[in-house]
Design goal:
42% helix; alpha/beta; globular; 2 domains
Length: 219
């Protein structure tokens, strides 16, 4: 008997609630990503691995194996920082885990996106929406100047602070804003994606476009 085709488009396994909300925010704006619309629960589901980044790295084939006939595609997303194997490059880790997923039964239907070093790297851009979300609208010095003065940026030409997470945490404290998962969704839903050059983000976007291209009616 021929196997029944999977019913949903995508299952995503992510490392934490921040990443869950960020991915949901991105999928809520399909035109900006260049994909067809996907509706949560009807077309896709996002799960958080209980063991966070190390769990995604070591256990995602096991976690996702029961869902191979329920979903057409699988996405695994986590931070390189804190995953437990920081020595290999991001590309090496992604390739190795994608091969494991393929051998576990997903074949070519699964992709891995590892953010280097961490999700907060996607937050930072020159958009005033970032200043607003972090509580820095109207502050002096402005957010970029503060990042320079604190040494998170080595020059004004740099786009993103190093390291990105402590910079965000301190900016939120000074801006008197709570650090919440909803903040990541808010930024993902509002900040322009056109200027994001992060390699992991670009891979995510390419993967989603390849899997879910816009229909002719939407072009």
């Amino acid at each position: 008997m021929k196997a029944e085709a999977p019913g949903k488009d995508l299952i995503a396994l992510v490392a934490d609630k921040n990443m869950e909300h960020a991915l949901r925010g991105l999928l809520n704006r399909p035109q900006s990503l260049g994909i067809r619309p996907l509706k949560e629960k009807r077309d896709y589901d996002i799960f958080v691995h209980p063991h966070r980044d190390p769990g995604c790295l070591a256990k995602s084939p096991e976690f996702l194996r029961p869902w191979q006939r329920t979903y057409r595609r699988a996405l695994v997303m986590f931070d390189r920082e804190g995953c437990g194997r920081e020595d290999p490059s991001r590309l090496e880790l992604e390739s190795d885990l994608e091969q494991q997923l393929a051998r576990s039964g997903w074949d070519e239907r699964a992709a891995v996106v590892i953010i280097d070093p961490e999700l907060e790297n996607w937050v930072w851009s020159n958009s005033p929406l970032v200043d607003r979300a972090l509580g820095w609208t109207g502050r002096f010095p402005d957010l970029r100047q503060w990042l320079l003065e604190e040494g998170y940026l080595r020059s004004a030409a740099e786009a993103k602070p190093i390291p990105p997470k402590p910079a965000m945490d301190q900016a939120l404290r000074l801006g008197k804003k709570p650090h919440s998962s909803s903040l990541f969704q808010q930024l993902a839903e509002t900040v322009s994606l056109s200027g994001c050059t992060d390699d992991a983000f670009l891979k995510l976007r390419r993967t989603l476009i390849g899997w879910f291209p816009p229909s002719a009616a939407e072009n």
